[in-house]
Amino acid sequence: MRGRLGRECVYVPSCRFGLFVALRHWCPPGGRVLMSPVNDDVIFFVVLAAGLRPVQAPLNPLDASIDVDAVPDELWGSLSAVLTTNLYGNPDDAPRLRARCDALRIPLLEDGAHAIGSEVGGRPVGSWGDASVFSLSKHVGAKAGGFLSCADPGLREALEKTCEDLLLPGRLTAELAYTVRPYAEAAVRGLRLRRAAWATMRMLGLMEREEIRMPLRAEDLGRAVGAAPDLTASDSWVRVDLHDYRLRSGGLRLGRIGRKLDHLDEVLAACRAGTEQLLSTRWARPGPGRAGEVGEASGAGVGGAGGSGARPVAQPLFRVPLFVADRDASIAALARRGIVVGYLYDPPLDDYAGAGFTDLSPDPDGARWFARHALPVDPLRARQVIDVLEESGARPAEAPGGLEPTRG
């Protein structure tokens, strides 16, 4: 990762843990952090756990990137930091955000969990911020591990010490469970027992999400926010879907992560090919128009290179958001072929959490449209997804009001 980004990197057990460390290091207690409302709720809770106030940004509806021009001047002046999302691997406009943060003398933090392999402004995502965090659960498929990078190499030692102070001791049972998990999952897939497994987990109370968003539990969350900055007080929200997020990694885990990481470039190449296929379909942009032109609608649009002036590259690489008129019907059609659609972030965080826990977006319509219509699909299954959508007669979503679907 040091070679990819050109900056120092610290291994962390998860992206969310690395983000907590970054927020605590770069942001003053009680500070205000501009972030995307179309984001994993876990990230929202990490910001709260760090003792900070989330501020929801207006988004470009075609790619869910922060709409830099739509953020009011008075809002810029109130911020302590900006946190990008790079949703599904599609980059936020980091060059312009970097310039804004420099002018305001506040840090830019990049969440690159979805964006290993993505570029913006001719540089890798994660090389623009004062700090950036990455997940090895996504493209690498290790289901554990991550990196925290920093622009100032002199901070590495301090960040490592902070990590050490916050990490919990590893457990042999957790290491063994991590080791056997891939074999158990393969058995469930091979025996076509997914539905039975989910039903059993639900019966035992082990399902932490019945809906896209986890239960907010406002009264309990209020107490956790009052105790912040404190990762332990917010643990029941931050740990969802990844209970080992702050455990020290043992040799078994590190060995498997390392072997997976060795194949990253092969995975990215395969993702790139699938992304190109998906971006050539009529669902790659809303409403009528030529396929593949969504990326021209903004500086960092789907498939674009973030305003670098270079020829657009195929991104996002983690999931490609297609735009369909009836997303539930498309999800059901894909499920019948064994293709599960995940990484949905609907409703946006300000609608989910309310003004009690976050500043609401000054212009929420873009986020709401994207959250309602985007169908994020795995580029590694591009051909199958295209076949299902064709056979099911899925229609592209209509462009949001006032937005032209194409340019030129």
Task: List its salient traits.
single chain, 408 residues, alpha/beta, Aspartate Aminotransferase, domain 2, Aspartate Aminotransferase, domain 1, seven-stranded mixed β-sheet, two-stranded antiparallel ribbon, 11 strands
Would you mind describing this structure in some detail?
The protein has 408 residues and is an alpha/beta fold. The chain folds into three domains: 165 residues, Aspartate Aminotransferase, domain 2, CATH 3.40.640; 37 residues, no CATH class; 129 residues, Alpha-Beta Complex (Aspartate Aminotransferase, domain 1). The chain is built from 16 helices and eleven strands. The strands form three sheets. It has a seven-stranded mixed β-sheet with strand order 1-9-8-5-4-2-3, sandwiched between helices. A two-stranded antiparallel ribbon has the order 6-7. Helix 2 runs parallel beside helix 3 and helix 7 crosses helix 11. The longest helix has 19 residues. It is globular and about 55 Å long. About 5% of the residues have low confidence.
Write the layout of secondary structure elements.
Blueprint: H1 2-5, E1 8-12, H2 15-26, E2 32-35, H3 41-49, E3 53-56, H4 73-76, E4 81-84, H5 94-104, E5 108-111, E6 119-120, E7 123-124, E8 131-135, E9 146-150, H6 156-166, H7 172-190, H8 194-203, H9 218-227, H10 235-238, H11 251-261, H12 264-279, E10 320-323, H13 327-336, H14 349-353, H15 365-373, E11 374-377, H16 382-392
Parallel strand pairs: 2-3, 2-4, 4-5, 5-8
Antiparallel strand pairs: 1-9, 6-7, 8-9, 10-11
Helix pairs in contact: 2-3, 7-11
